[in-house]
């Protein structure tokens, strides 16, 4: 990525963005995923950076860019206040018919906005008619991404706009192997396509079981939200042993995914989700058999849960 791309993606101080532009940085150049600095800044949501970039576009209008026609028709001579600037970007996106456009990973602007947890942009894109069920080549939709980032309000907003809660994905990551966007899909072998639903994602079907941050990240609110929507606590993954993910077996229900060795730190939050699943009759078959004697000590204070697992 170029310096201006990094600056706008990370939302650095507007003075630095202005200095880069004054020094000749080109905000129209796209990343490998096909995103220019204007879109990166919009996804980030830092209003003053959007203003600086729009001022640059007015002073140096692009010949062939999604802002071009809108800038010509709007007749803007300088960037308005921050709210009006944001509205200008939204108007330009609508004018250029980018509402359901996607990047080189197959991710729509809506998907990317959800991933950045930019609720204002998500709301505007949905208002313009963005499709929450557009899927990337791996099956990931904006709803799956809301589950992945554990943002219940965004997930609810997407459901209210028609998101399919039962759609499955064929990989544990929404990013292809060549992506620089924060993760990689893992390869799978064989003719059978793996399938996981949003509840499997919420309880930890991801490619990094040794990642300490991932082990500490678990949202009881998201799991409860999905269960209340009607996701089956006993539905199993399909063909997931074909994925090159450590210890993700052929068919595993949510509770079995949670008890993969070293997957989660056993904390009150962890046991709250376990209790939530068992209260709804979650399949615990084989979990106790996979445990070592030392693991039993981790159930101190949760003896009833241990008995539930042992009896399965």
Automatic annotation (TrEMBL):
Keywords: ANK repeat, Repeat
Residues in ANK repeats: 105-137, 138-165
InterPro entries the record matches: Ankyrin_rpt, Ankyrin_rpt-contain_sf, Multifunctional_regulatory
Keyword Glycoprotein appears in the UniProt entry: no
SUPFAM superfamilies: Ankyrin repeat
Keyword Glycosyltransferase carried by entry: no
Protein name (Swiss-Prot/TrEMBL): Ankyrin
């Amino acid at each position: 990525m170029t310096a201006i791309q990094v600056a706008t993606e990370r939302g650095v101080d507007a003075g630095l963005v202005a200095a880069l532009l004054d020094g000749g940085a080109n905000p129209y150049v796209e990343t490998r995923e096909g995103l220019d600095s204007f879109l990166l800044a919009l996804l980030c949501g830092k209003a003053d950076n959007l203003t600086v970039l729009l001022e640059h576009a007015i002073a140096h209008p692009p010949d062939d860019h999604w802002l071009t026609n809108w800038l010509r028709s709007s007749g803007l001579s300088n960037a308005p206040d921050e709210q009006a600037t944001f509205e200008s970007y939204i108007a330009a996106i609508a004018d250029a018919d980018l509402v359901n456009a996607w990047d080189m990973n197959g991710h729509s602007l809506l998907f990317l906005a959800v991933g950045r947890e930019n609720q204002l942009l998500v709301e505007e894109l949905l208002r313009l008619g963005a499709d929450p069920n557009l899927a990337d080549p791996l099956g990931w939709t904006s709803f799956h991404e809301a589950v992945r980032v554990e943002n219940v309000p965004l997930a609810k907003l997407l459901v209210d706009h028609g998101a399919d809660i039962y759609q499955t994905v064929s990989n544990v990551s929404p990013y292809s192997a060549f992506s620089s966007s924060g993760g990689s899909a893992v390869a799978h072998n064989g003719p059978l396509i793996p399938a996981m639903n949003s509840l499997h994602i919420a309880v930890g079907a991801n490619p990094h079981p040794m990642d300490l941050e991932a082990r500490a990240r678990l949202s009881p609110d998201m799991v409860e939200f999905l269960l209340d929507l009607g996701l089956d606590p006993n539905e199993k993954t399909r063909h997931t042993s074909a994925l090159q993910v450590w210890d993700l077996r052929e068919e595993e229900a949510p509770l079995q995914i949670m008890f993969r060795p070293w997957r989660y730190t056993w904390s009150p939050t962890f046991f709250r989700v376990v209790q939530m699943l068992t209260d709804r009759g979650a399949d615990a078959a084989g979990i106790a058999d996979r445990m070592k004697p030392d693991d039993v000590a981790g159930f101190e204070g949760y003896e009833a849960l241990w008995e539930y697992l042992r009896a399965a």
